[in-house]
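As described in the Methods, two query proteins were run sequentially through the folding procedure within a single session, without resetting any intermediate state between them. The first query and its resulting structure tokens are shown here.
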Amino acid sequence: MPGGPRVGVLLPQTYMNDSGRSAGPARGALKVDLDHVVAVHDELDLPFGDVRTRLGGGLAGHNGLKSLRRELGSPDFHRVRVGVGRPDSTDPEVVAAYVLGAWRQPRAEVEELVARAADEVERVINS
């Protein structure tokens, strides 16, 4: 929206588990306050289709969030948590294959989820 907040989008070229290696230096270079950082990430602990927002909090074993906390110096950044559900196994290899594999839901449902997540990011930015 014209006249709205200035927004920068960072698409790290690192693996997700190392995303803080890009976000930390970018935040420093752009002099962005920590409470103006928004991370969008998959969330196994939410059912597919849920989108929730939080400021700070636990990292739920998410390696990408751990990397962000380490490089940003704190977990107190905004997160848009995109529910992808959890496989029926707790085996780390099965879980990794689940989150890294192809979507199991119909394309239209995935597109709708991405659109709702984008709307939530916009809401966070404008609040």
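Immediately afterward, the second query was submitted; its sequence and tokens are:
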Amino acid sequence: MTLRETGTYTHVMKVRRSGVVAIACASALAAPPAHAAAQTLQRSLYVSVVNEAGAPVPDLGPADFIVREDNVAREVLRVAPADEPMQVAVLVDTSQTSRNNISYMRTALPPFITALTNPNESGRKNQVALVAFGERPTIFTEYTTNTSELQKGVNRIWSLPDAGAYLLDGLLEVCQGFKKREATRPVIVAIAVEGPELSYRHYDQVLGSLRDCAAPFYALMIGTPSADLSDEGLSRSIVLDRGTTDSGGRRDQLLSGMALNDRLKQLAAQLTHQYRVTYARPQSLIPPERVTVSTSRQGLTARGTPSKERQDRP
């Protein structure tokens, strides 16, 4: 008969303890540190802050901004001037309804374009494109920093006899163009005269495209708000209201085309003096449905658009 080798009680317990220690060490290596679970990611917004006169407000810092995701406040980490180049699509109404306001558009657009294409403090220039939406949307000038080329596009702005306005179709096609170009900081500015809308696109299609391309939509509407109750007219009204607000843009109602020059000058100042606001969000959280930004200072208004460049990093 062969007997198994035996050891003392102390020897057996040492072996058992060493096994327990090995298991504990392995568990410690496998488990992430406590702080990793609570790790945050960084996201950014392009934010305009204006006073009651509509002028941009300089020298703001993290304490001046309040960022919320689905109404939950997030920590603002950094605030800096936004110097990344913009890709600005300017949509111009060339329908028959715009006939009496074409001269104001042709006068107001050149200084607006010049203000946008001047080099910023980092020496960068924004690109501008001109798109007409009388009849089907038509590109007058592709995205460029060349003011001479853009002036050629301005010179082509005339009202087309018997032509209707296709603003919603123009918005959707511009958003699709941003996606193809992989635009990192897209902006849409539309100059339109109140009147019938003939677009084939429904409001939900356009709102979805605006959301996907992450472009603030600024609408400068000339005349008394339309009372068009057709499906096309209602779609246009919804896009002008929700599309501007939800995207971080703005709708301005101008009684006359004579106000266009001052309003475009003001808008150029706002766009070229934006902030890039970086904030933290929990890593484990699903993407929020709504992100809003405001300011803690009295008498100021903030409007923001999420950065197209994803910054989900620790």
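The first helix runs from residue 9 to 30. We note this only descriptively and draw no conclusion about the first query from it.
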